[in-house]
């Protein structure tokens, strides 16, 4: 818990994050049959939170104690859980493994909740197997006729291409170098699309570019109900 240096202090002398770690240690040492943890890392700084996620996952594996973990942080849910239950206003939306929820979301709420950066959403209409928007048209893996539809695609499944060969035409809005990759946000009509591009990508704000999507990794949703079209 990294609290060795705090052993001579009184509880009133501890910060919120330090008290949180003391509470975690107090619960763990009892070896209960089930752990119920309600946002146990919320008061920790980012670096310590990352360390404690790894420690908690290792501890759960070593002790083999069932843990119910409540969190609003989707990264904690994805990295810690064997199974994730996603609720909206108290209603269960999906219960499955992190990989299944990420790769096969049941509706728009789940699709946008899981993922960092979040899934891109493009507004348009579905006509047969063609999704149409003001910035272009995209062949999608499902069919139907929906007046108000949403195309969902994750940043890593988007590719920046020449405007002449693109599914959608857009303008560069911002460029953010993350380290091992670059996040390029483009504006296509009224929609903003984030693309995970190579780290050496370069471009100018306002430049016209094209965006293409991986057909196998596209999702279509009904805007009104949020239901996924399969």
Mean pLDDT over the residues = 92
Strand content: 35-45%
Element pattern in H and E = HEHEHEEHHEEEEEEEEE
Q: Provide the gyration radius in Å.
A: 22 Å
Report on this model:
The protein has about 230 residues and is of the alpha+beta class. The chain contains 5 helices and 13 strands. The strands form 4 sheets. The chain has a 5-stranded antiparallel β-sheet with strand order 7-11-8-9-10, with no helix packed on it. Strands 5-6-12-13 form a 4-stranded antiparallel β-sheet. The protein has a two-stranded parallel ribbon with strand order 1-2. Helix 2 links the parallel strand 1 and strand 2 (about 65-70). The longest helix has 18 residues, at about 45-65. It is elongated. The model has no long low-confidence stretch (mean pLDDT about 90).
Per-chain topology:
Blueprint: H1 16-28, E1 34-38, H2 46-63, E2 66-70, H3 74-80, E3 84-88, E4 91-96, H4 98-103, H5 108-113, E5 120-133, E6 136-153, E7 158-161, E8 168-177, E9 181-188, E10 191-198, E11 208-213, E12 219-222, E13 228-229
Parallel strand pairs: 1-2
Antiparallel strand pairs: 3-4, 5-6, 6-12, 7-11, 8-9, 8-11, 9-10, 12-13
Structure characteristics:
5 helices; 230 residues; 41% strand; four-stranded antiparallel sheet; alpha+beta
Write a brief caption for the model:
By secondary structure, the chain is α+β, with helices and mostly antiparallel strands. 22% of the residues lie in helices and 41% in strands.
């Amino acid at each position: 818990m990294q609290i060795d240096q705090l052993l001579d202090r009184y509880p009133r002398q501890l910060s919120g994050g330090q008290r949180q770690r003391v509470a975690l240690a107090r619960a763990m040492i009892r070896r209960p049959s089930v752990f119920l943890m309600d946002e146990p890392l919320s008061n920790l700084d980012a670096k310590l939170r990352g360390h404690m996620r790894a420690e908690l996952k290792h501890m759960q594996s070593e002790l083999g104690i069932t843990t119910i973990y409540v969190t609003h942080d989707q990264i904690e849910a994805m990295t810690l859980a064997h199974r994730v239950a996603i609720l909206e206003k108290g209603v269960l939306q999906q219960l499955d493994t992190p990989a299944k929820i990420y790769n096969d979301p049941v509706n728009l709420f789940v699709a946008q909740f899981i993922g960092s950066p979040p899934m891109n959403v493009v507004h348009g209409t579905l006509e047969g197997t063609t999704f149409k928007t003001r910035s272009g048209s995209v062949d999608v893996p499902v069919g139907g006729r929906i007046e108000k539809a949403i195309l969902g695609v994750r940043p890593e499944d988007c590719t920046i291409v020449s405007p002449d060969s693109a599914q959608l035409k857009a303008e560069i809005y911002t460029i953010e170098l993350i380290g091992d990759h670059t996040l390029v946000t483009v504006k296509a009509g009224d929609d903003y699309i984030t693309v995970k591009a190579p780290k050496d990508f370069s471009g100018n704000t306002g430049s016209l570019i094209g965006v293409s999507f991986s057909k196998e990794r596209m999702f279509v949703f009904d805007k009104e109900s949020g239901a996924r079209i399969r």
